[in-house]
Design a protein that fits this description.
This protein is mainly alpha-helical. It has one domain (38-162). The protein is 65% helix and 0% strand.
Length: 164
Amino acid sequence: MANSPHPCPACYDVSDDISFTSPRPASSRAFRLLRIPTRSTTYGLVLLSGTVALGLASRRYPAVLPTFVSTYAGDVLWASMVFWLLTLVRPRGDGRQLAAIAFAIAVAVETSQRYHAPWLDALRASRVGALALGQGFLWSDIACYFVGVLVAAWVDVMLRTRSR
């Protein structure tokens, strides 16, 4: 602010404060946030397996869960599973991009439920097809997918910042 006639930050040339010859120390939080560490495949597999197990359990044993949880947990966990799959495919991928892609995939699968071809309905009638593709379009499922991706992305951020 030596060249500034006024003490307010908007009145001076920011380039005076930027030094291109000496980078920020590696311990600086801002510098660390710029690095995208590789996600652990082990953590990814554990999170994916745990999410699948919880999702299957929420569908298999709905009576032991509160009604609200048993109604929406499977959809939330399904979207989280899509996010964990993407982190395994792109371990160095940007979390925001992976979350956006996971949400787009979830919405695409949900909107595909409005299309009823005989072969697709036959696939959805099977247990695996119903779990992977769903059975009927619901707007509430899209909200659940948003929550699921958001929670998975938050867990991803927490695990990656903790490991630094």
